[in-house]
Amino acid sequence: MSDSAPTVEEIALLDRVQAPEGQGREIPDAATREVLGRAPVQTVADLDGAIARAKAAQPAWEALGHEKRSELMLKAADALDANAETLARILSREQGKPLNGPNARFELGACSGWLRSAATTVLEPEVLVDDGETHAELHYRALGVVGAIGPWNWPLMIAIWQIGPSLRMGNTVVVKPSEYTPLSVLAMISVMNEALPADVLIGVSGDREVGARLASHPDIDKVMFTGSTATGRKIIESSAGNIARLTLELGGNDAGIVLPGSDPQAIAQDLFWGAFINTGQTCAALKRLYVHDSIYDAVVDSLAVIAQQTPMGNGLSEDNVLGPLQNKQQFDIVNRLVEDARANGARIVTGGAPATDLGELFYPITLVADATDGMAIVDEEQFGPALPIIRYSDVDDAVANANRLEAGLGGSVWGDPDEARRVASRIQSGTVWINSHGGLHPQVPFGGVKSSGYGLEFGVAGLKSVAATQVISG
């Protein structure tokens, strides 16, 4: 049980960022659909002003040098830690994810951890040639102003993935949060700005027109975007005019392959959370599971037991670890794909219908057995609590089907580690996990291939992606 009433701290922080009474756009609580707050509705003119301020602040921020910037970023991380519970509760209400499990409190911990990692990662100049006649070094400088466009599924953590490296390298950042989850992002930025200089980090809450302008603005030097492949294509087109550099983390439809000889009960818990972390609303979640015929039924049964034992409900309850779909559009996609699978002969093992007793946008964990390639639930990214499980008898066929789609964000192989690594080398995705799925580390680069985008985030590679290169030779 938990007190669902907003705390004094929540109210005070929301009041810092939301629109005045009677203005703005109402943002609902994802679980109860009651009004959480009022998001500012800013315009293209507001965005232009924010970019102008960020551009004016950038030279002084870069001139502070790496050591001072790192110091201020660590103070911003301290501020996040001091406000972590308040931010987690706002995030839980707005996004829907529960406080516990790999959810809201986990996300706030990741925000602090990734920000600290970006602040302290060392990026030294690289000596290219030093042969007694020529000495050439590769240096990394600030680009200028970075435009960060974020999603609604992990709105705070992904914003930090964009903000942290950009600030570390001496850029200023203008953040455009998702229209579905603006309040939590604006609240986080407000907290960080307690430690950062004015106009180094600015949030702008607006509609798609504002996002399009951010991607095409002549004073934006880099665009970082996490979201759908369709929107990513539009950003590529918009950025042609200003030749902004891009890092795009786009849609995923990650395949997992369970090899023969695997122990179904031993891997079931990790398979479950690989698929259903954040109630399945994760770009690099496991979304297609290929299981060898010899252990197929046992894997399905093991996953069903976990699904039936994992509590779902309002995220502010300390008992729940699964929440609602964040928005009606995504809810409808999941419902459509499950109904299509049922109509085409798939077997619904658990779930399979909206959980209206829990609330408007709750959909239970749905295991879709006897799914086949070509079904919509396999070929389309469901981005929710429904997992198609496909039977195979030949590993080569499973690899071919895993690679069949245009998505290439992540993948996983489960079984004997040596054999799994041999299979992993054949998977067309930016990351392949062995006997796990979806785990990220702030020093391990992450990015997609094919239509899942391009560019790397995290660690040294992530710092380089938000920097301009300069060769000094002589």
From TrEMBL:
Family indicated by similarity: Belongs to the aldehyde dehydrogenase family.
Gene3D superfamilies: Aldehyde Dehydrogenase, Chain A, domain 1, Aldehyde Dehydrogenase, Chain A, domain 2
Top-level lineage group: Bacteria
Molecular function (Gene Ontology), one example: oxidoreductase activity, acting on the aldehyde or oxo group of donors, NAD or NADP as acceptor
Key words of the record: Oxidoreductase
PROSITE patterns reported for this sequence: ALDEHYDE_DEHYDR_CYS, ALDEHYDE_DEHYDR_GLU
UniProt-listed SUPFAM superfamilies: ALDH-like
Residue ranges constituting the Aldehyde dehydrogenase domain according to the UniProt record: 27-470
Active-site residues annotated for this sequence: 249
Organism listed in the record: Humibacter ginsenosidimutans
Record's protein name: Aldehyde dehydrogenase family protein
